[in-house]
Amino acid sequence: MRRILPLLFMTTAACEFGLPAGSEPHREFNFLDMADQPKMKPQRGDIFGGNTTGMQAPPPKSLAQHDNPYPYTQAEADKAGAELVNPLTATPTSLKRGKFIFENVCIACHGKEAAGDGLVTKLFPKPPSLMTQRVRDFSDGRIFHVPMRGQNSMPSHEKIVAQQDLWAVVLYIRELQGRLPVAPPPPAAQPAGGVTP
To answer: What is the CATH code of the structural domain delimited by 84-179?
Structure first.
């Protein structure tokens, strides 16, 4: 044991103080140059040459697993409304999920009862109430289209919220519409000067 301790101390001292660290080639037992050892650096290229990204390139025209690109443009709201059908049914589970997503994503602007009175409306334009008769008359696909592509100051949520979750939000909005009174339509826009014709 007495012989091992001095040898261990000398080895540690050599590693800690005796060998240079930095951009020089890696030396055995030198732990100071760990950052400079040859290794793969994902998304920054690798030092061995050949692979410039550090990651294997996906095959051409491949999609991420479970990726389902939304095919409608922002201007195709009516087409989306006519063609899209909610794949979910209003079960306690789907409504609970829709409420959870609504309360964590939508409530900041739309408010607790989707009246367009969320806390963010103190700083940004107020969104329309989702309780008006106009929105109640929209098909599920038409309601789904708005967060997918965005509208007015509302950005697209296509890459933020999964489509399945947005369909659950549509079910939750329908549930709110079923138990809350119809909201009056928004006031007509006033012409310049505030005088109505």
So the answer is: 1.10.760.10
